[in-house]
Amino acid sequence: MSPAPHSERERRILALWESAVGRPRVQRDDALLGEAGPPRALGARNRSWLAIRAALFGRDWPLRSDCPSCAGPCEFVIDAAALAGELAALPAARAAATIEWRGRTIALRAPTADDLGDVSGAEDVADAARLLLACCAPGEDVAELDEHDLAALAHEIESLDPAAMISFALTCPDCGHGWPAPVDVAEALWSEVREAAERSLTEIDALARAYGWDEEQVLRLSPVRRAAYLQLIAA
Asked: Model-level pTM?
């Protein structure tokens, strides 16, 4: 999938930025989906964000994760469009299920975007994980569970929506340590949208000051002509 033509892409990026900037995390993530009534299921949201990323910036998505052993940077590239297709081919998400747990039947449900918003005020990652488990295993006293039981329940809950968690097996180029690196798709997309929008706004401001053009006139310039005008301003 190739990105949209430059002017159309830039308008869409600016519109997404304007709708998302300054909002709380879950509302910002909703705005990035650019649709009325965005899905609440995490897997469906990941697929949509990946498709949006491919449409705006192209398939190849350079990402980075720091090695948990030596803190060295590990850069890698994913195919956003292909990954969206792979997520769509995973088993369909189930909103809820029952499992046998320690000799009794308990009900579980898949986490949603609203659940993430509810646990966003947690003190740390471990606290957030317990709060999220409490949301998804109603009636269970997760505070009494040990780390092994927490991990087992988390695995059962994750299986309800296989596309909800995206991670990549990486190997550190510096120390050789391997680890699964999770990717926060919405956060990574927002970083790109924000950076691109701020760059566009800076260029629009510079050309408006120098030539008196309005935003639409600047957006209609080809990238080559805009760069030439910006060079003339800087000269």
From this structure: 0.90
